[in-house]
Amino acid sequence: MDTTRRRLLGASATALASTAVAMPAIAQTSPEIRWRLTSSFPRQLDTIYGTAQTFAKMVSEATDGKFKIETFPAGEIVPGLQALDAVSAGTVECAQTA
């Protein structure tokens, strides 16, 4: 199994596990939540950036659309190397980086 496929499977497993852990708390009647996720990867790296989109889709489906994550590639909100700084500053709620 090549490294790229291993990373994709690892990221998908992490996303699924974190969604499963968060589901009981989110499942209660609550207002709709919207987060913005900035990635340090460009849209053209669909294998890596695609995991963020898959994660966002899985979270939305697991919560019946009550928790939505909008994904943004590097450069749309902040440059790729500033993704974690954007979370610290409160510009976005989460980031995907290496």
CATH top level assignment: Alpha Beta
In percent, how helical is the residue content? 40-55%
Report the CATH architecture.
3-Layer(aba) Sandwich
Task: Describe the largest sheet.
Answer: 3 strands, parallel
Gyration radius, rounded: 14 Å
What structural class is derived from the secondary structure elements?
Answer: alpha/beta
Runs in which pLDDT lies below 50 for 5 or more consecutive residues are none
- CATH homologous superfamily identity: Bacterial extracellular solute-binding protein, family 7
Number of alpha- plus pi-helical segments: 3
- What series of H and E elements makes up the topology? HEHEHE
The overall average pLDDT, rounded, is 86
Strand order of the largest sheet: 2-1-3
Number of β-strand runs: 3
CATH names the topology as D-Maltodextrin-Binding Protein, domain 2
Question: What is the overall silhouette?
Answer: globular
